[in-house]
TrEMBL record:
Pfam family, one: AMP-binding
InterPro entries: ACAS_N, AMP-binding, AMP-binding_CS, AMP-dep_synth/lig_dom, ANL_N_sf
Signal peptide range in chain numbering: none
Name assigned to this protein: acetate--CoA ligase
Domain AMP-dependent synthetase/ligase, first and last residues per copy: 72-380
Any single GO BP term: acetyl-CoA biosynthetic process
Acetyl-coenzyme A synthetase N-terminal domain residues: 12-64
Length: 381
């Protein structure tokens, strides 16, 4: 066991203060971030409606990127992306900001502005995260659809959101197989009257022809400026819509906003995981889920952290790739699901024994019950 310095060594006292003085508590948390205009009230509660940082103005992307560019974090790795085939891409905060600004300007050139909805149907790649950040930077509301969803699911979400633009990729990869995202998107957009453009990220060398209202992702970036001021957003302005799965009926679009979402996820990320400035954080979710929104993209970037994320299955191309990544990148904190732990458990302890895992400080799980056997196995191996 390694000794750990926790951010909340006196949890009971901190919790008691949050209950006794919630306005002061959350005002202090919010004051760590940038506001174009400070709020008039920390919250208004008119059950069942709750409004946070009322009258405040901010932009979550300004806090995720611009705030770091005048500090030593400018050239720090923000995102480390890994492909199933061993491909690696590293984005510093400065480079990520440039790419986000380019796409933000590209979206504006297509007529996308504050309040417009953009559906994102992308594989788990930097381009997917850049698409989210570019939308939020100009005040457009993004709605990410998990890249494993069907034609009907994508179509229904485009229609319900009344999306102006769809951003998609040609292919995703899982267990060495290509997933034809563009083919699914082509069928899904039929009859979607609100759409004016489809932006296509073509990752394959043999690029298929684009036509009609389709625009090439890379060309849009190449023809756009790296300067794009962040839109000043009211605290309660929508940031994104994320639809429920639909397993219990018609999918419902859940709206998250710039102010309260930013403060809440930043506070949780910083204190629950105790991520330090030189740590490497790995969230094993997908941007199609709320966990991926919060802990691959927004909260880690707002906190100035370095985040690893990976496209594909955690046991492909071999059953020790999970441990290989921990050793290679010195991963300190992991957020995963009990399903992943049970999968690793099935392969036994031998794959883990081949790698040096001393960098790993926290392994955290959420999303479903973690059985005691898997918990003990994770601690031991």
């Amino acid at each position: 066991m390694y000794q750990v310095r926790l951010r909340l060594p006196t949890f009971d006292a901190v919790y008691a203060r949050s209950v006794a003085d919630p306005e002061g508590f959350w005002a202090e948390a919010a004051d760590e971030l940038h506001w174009f205009r400070r709020w008039d009230e920390v919250f208004q509660w008119d059950y069942p409606n709750f409004r946070w940082f009322v009258g405040g103005q901010t932009n979550i992307v300004y806090n995720a990127l611009d705030r770091h560019l005048t500090t030593e974090r400018r050239n720090k790795a923000a995102l480390i992306w890994l492909g199933e085939d061993g491909t690696e891409q590293v984005y510093t905060y400065a480079r990520l900001a440039q790419q986000v600004n380019r796409l933000a300007n590209g979206l504006k050139s297509l007529g996308v502005g504050k309040g417009d909805r953009v559906v994102i149907y992308m594989p788990l790649t930097p381009e997917g995260a850049i698409s989210m950040l570019a939308c939020a930077r100009i005040g457009a509301i993004h709605s990410v659809v998990y890249a494993g969803f069907s034609v009907g699911s994508l179509h229904d979400r485009i229609e319900d959101a009344e999306a102006k633009v769809l951003i998609t990729g040609d292919y995703g990869y899982r267990r060495g197989n290509r997933v034809d995202l563009k083919g699914i998107a082509d069928e899904a957009v039929v009859g979607c009257q609100s759409l004016t453009n489809v932006i296509v990220w073509r990752r394959e060398i043999a690029r298929e022809e684009l036509g009609g209202m389709e625009v090439d992702f890379e060309e849009l970036l190449a023809n756009s400026s790296i300067d794009c001021p962040a839109e000043v957003m009211d605290s309660e302005d929508p940031l994104y819509i994320l639809y429920t799965s639909g397993t219990t009926g018609k999918p419902k679009g859940v709206v998250h906003v710039h102010g309260g979402y930013m403060v809440g996820t930043h506070y949780h990320f910083k204190n629950f995981w105790d991520v330090k400035d030189n740590d490497v954080f790995w969230c094993m979710s997908d941007i199609g889920w709320v966990v991926g929104h919060s802990y691959i993209v927004y909260a880690p970037l707002v906190a100035g952290a370095t985040t690893v994320f990976r496209e594909g299955a955690p046991d492909y191309p071999h059953n020790a790739v999970f441990y290989e990544i921990i050793e290679k990148y010195g991963v300190n904190v992991i957020f995963t699901a009990p399903t992943a732990v049970r999968m690793l458990m099935r392969y036994g302890e031998e794959p883990a024994s081949r790698y040096n895992l001393r960098s790993l400080r926290f392994l955290t799980c959420a999303g479903e019950p973690l059985n005691p056997e898997a918990l003990r196995w994770a601690y031991e191996h």
